[in-house]
Write a structure and sequence with these properties.
Layout lengths: L2 H14 L1 H13 L3 H16 L2 H24 L12 H9 L10 H21 L12 H11 L2 H25 L11 H8 L13 H24 L9 H9 L5 H19 L4 H4 L7 H4 L4
């Protein structure tokens, strides 16, 4: 874009929300944050075009959170009540930090994190009292899972109970808003993460709504296809899907055809990579008997 084009575009935005624009501009200028603001805007753009940008931001955010927790360990003593903390950065840091990341921090931080878990569950349950207005935050699934894994016995039970309520609300919304062939990228982040992590073929799995189940398998098939493409393009591709999961999906007859097919493909490719060109390890693998059926070759 030329400078003239950008000037016209920014002018259109300014005319829509002049007060917000002018207030933000004045604040950034007064606090000498223009360079930092430009850096963050460029980072946001790079997130969509440069895969490494996500890891870069993730590490930066992690370092910031660890610094804040280090300062809090010096600032607070054991027995500090979580509700007495008023600093928004400290509250957000406790909320966003996984319990497993606190290994190198003092017991003061551990106590505050456990209290923040209790506060989060209470706040979440209050919001669920009006399900039609409930709008889950992006990390709700990860936060509840973190509490289930590391919280006290009472916290774990509360997290399981509240997670079931969150799931019910999201399933109802998904069933109402989407069709079975909905592209997964149209889902919100909480919807995607919760539906992605379902385990519909375990022995005690509940009866999920049809649209929810269809989208779950669509997500599974898409991820398998993306991983297969990655292995096809690069033998050193970092496979994030564990082999035991591939084997389970591959041999389980309850897995729908499309996801099942992608698992076969990826398992075969992975064995090719692990064998480093040795055909002997692959000859006995059943995928070779099905390649003609799917018109796909290793």
């Amino acid at each position: 874009m030329t400078q003239t084009m950008m000037d016209y575009a920014s002018g259109d935005v300014t005319s829509l929300i002049p007060e917000v624009y002018e207030t933000q501009k004045e604040y950034i200028t007064r606090n000498q944050l223009l360079d930092l603001y430009e850096e963050r805007v460029l980072e946001e753009i790079e997130l969509y075009i440069e895969p490494a940008a996500k890891e870069k931001r993730k590490h930066r955010n992690f370092d910031i959170r660890m610094d804040i927790l280090g300062d809090m360990a010096k600032k607070y003593r054991r027995g500090t009540v979580y509700e007495s903390i008023t600093d928004e950065d400290e509250i957000k840091t406790l909320k966003d930090t996984n319990f497993s990341e606190l290994a190198d921090h003092s017991s003061v931080i551990t106590e505050l994190k456990l209290q923040s878990m209790t506060f989060y569950l209470t706040s979440l349950e209050e919001k669920l009292e009006t399900p039609e207005e409930f709008n889950p935050d992006r990390g709700v699934n990860f936060k509840l899972t973190d509490i289930e894994r590391f919280g006290s016995e009472q916290l774990k039970n509360d997290a399981l109970r509240i997670k079931a309520k969150v799931d019910d609300v999201i399933f109802s919304d998904v069933q109402r808003k989407y069709k079975a062939d909905e592209p997964p990228e149209n889902l919100s982040s909480p919807e995607y993460q919760i539906i992605r992590n379902l385990k519909p073929i375990r022995d005690n799995a509940p009866n999920y709504p049809p649209t929810v189940l269809a989208i779950h398998w669509k997500i599974a098939a898409t991820e398998m296809q993306d991983a297969t493409d990655g292995l096809n393009d690069d033998p050193d591709y970092n496979m994030t899907i564990p082999v035991p999961k591939l084997k389970f999906f591959t041999y389980n007859t309850n897995v729908p055809g499309n996801a099942h097919k992608h698992c076969w493909k990826k398992m075969s490719l992975q064995l090719c990579v692990e064998s480093r060109g040795s055909i002997r390890k692959i000859l006995n693998f059943p995928i070779l008997r099905l390649q003609k059926r799917w018109s796909w070759n290793v």
